[in-house]
Amino acid sequence: MNNQSIYEVLNDESSTPEEINYDDESNDKQTVIDPAEVVFWLKLSQSVISVTGCFGNLLIILIISKWKNITSGAAFMVTVAVTDFLAVFYNGIIDSAFPFLGLNLASLNDVICSFGNFFSWIFTSSSYYVTVLFSLDKCIATVVPFKYREHGKPVLSVISTLVVYFFWGLLSFPSVLIHKVDPVKLECQIMNFEIISQDFIVKIYAPVLFFLSGIIPTLSVIVLTTITIFRVRMSSARRKKAESQRQSRQTSASGRRDREMTRQMIIVGIVFSSLCLGHIGCVGVQASLGSSAKDKARRLVIRSVQNILTALTNSVNFFVYVAFGRKFREQAMSLLRLTRGDVSNAR
Q: How far is the C-alpha of 14 from the C-alpha of 184, rounded, in Å?
């Protein structure tokens, strides 16, 4: 959610680095690092992360699409990758990288401005909730494994993801009505309050949206990941006991893929929760800042850091899968022609 996101409405702040006036605070002018330069490098970093994230998410989709047996967990890996790709493509490339090339699509006209932010809000928030669904899927797989194998179907993953899209489509629709290109600054901003009042947006809509898109998915992933870790530790202890009693090796190998996927989900959950907590912390810090030139400069920098955290949230999964999944790593290397082999036969 770049441009003037709903979180910026909470802070009632829309200054750019060039607009900060230090004339009334001589001390600030000497002590504050040039915010324009800092924000420039942070936005450049966001663009690099976003391009990498798009590439990584596409690789996830290509690799899993070649698997012969798609489980519910694998289907969620795809839906998470698709949603992350859409979110990071708009927020990081269209809204961040393109302006570096002098192409600011969001500011071309009011239609592109409003609907661009509409889809940005949908995919950014949906990516968090699809990650929650992925965490829920693996949590159920560890708590009731037999029922999960019986009822956990890939089609349920797709349907639940579409429900999430629909929900956030309804909740994000006000963005179509409130976004407009500022005729003076020529920037896409939240400034149209002809249909929806500013009081409603600031006092009700923005806090509710922040709670639903930030607090709830973060807490949900923390709880589900904690339960999954606890169940995995219990299952690991039972498995070691069974292996010590010389049970069939085939029984131990049959769940190897599920265990690897569960381990990947646990790491995804930990990384996701950490980044989201940082994101929430940035919003809190911005809300605590005042209206002085020094605080405005800090707010701009923190907002750029917040956008980087969002880009990382939508970009990091590929590297988690590669680092903590041996078979996925082999498939990625094969797809990139670094090793020989058929990706479809790697699973």
A: 14
Total domains in the chain come to 1
Question: Residue 36: which of 300, 253, 215, 312 has the closest Cα?
Answer: 300
- Write the secondary structure of 265-319 as one string of H (helix), E (strand) and C (coil): HHHHHHHHHHHHHHHHHHHHHHHHCCCCHHHHHHHHHHHHHHHHHHHHHCCCHHH
Question: Could you tell me if residue 233 is inside a domain?
Answer: yes
* Closest C-alpha to 152, from 251, 255, 261, 75: 75
**60 residue type, one letter:** I
Alpha helices (runs of H) in the chain, residue ranges in sequence order? 6-11, 26-31, 35-65, 72-88, 98-100, 110-143, 145-151, 154-172, 174-178, 198-200, 206-210, 216-244, 249-254, 256-288, 293-313, 317-324, 326-335
Query: DSSP letter at 76?
Result: H
Please tell me the total number of residues recorded for the chain in this structure. Answer: 347
d(CA 298, CA 292): 10
Asked if residues 332 and 322 have their Cβ atoms less than 8 Å apart, the reply is yes
Q: Report how far residue 209's alpha carbon sits from residue 117's, in angstroms, rounded to the nearest whole number.
A: 14
Q: pLDDT grade, residue 316 (50/70/90)?
A: very high
* Confidence at residue 23, expressed as pLDDT on a 0 to 100 scale: 47
Distance CA 291, CA 241 (A): 62
The tokens for 297 are 């400069």
Q: How do residues 24-53 score in pLDDT, each as one tens digit?
A: 444 444 444 667 788 888 888 888 999 999
Per the structure, the complete domain to which residue 135 belongs is given by 6-11+35-200+207-238+254-345
Q: By mean pLDDT, which of 2-6, 59-63, 232-236, 262-266 is the weakest?
A: 2-6
Longest dimension (CA), the chain: 79
Report the DSSP pairing between strands 179-181 and 188-190: antiparallel
Tens digit of pLDDT for each residue in 8-25? 555 545 555 545 554 444
Residue 245 in domain: no
Does residue 292 lie in a domain region? yes
How far out from the chain centre does Cα 40 lie?
Answer: 22
Give residue 21's pLDDT. Answer: 52
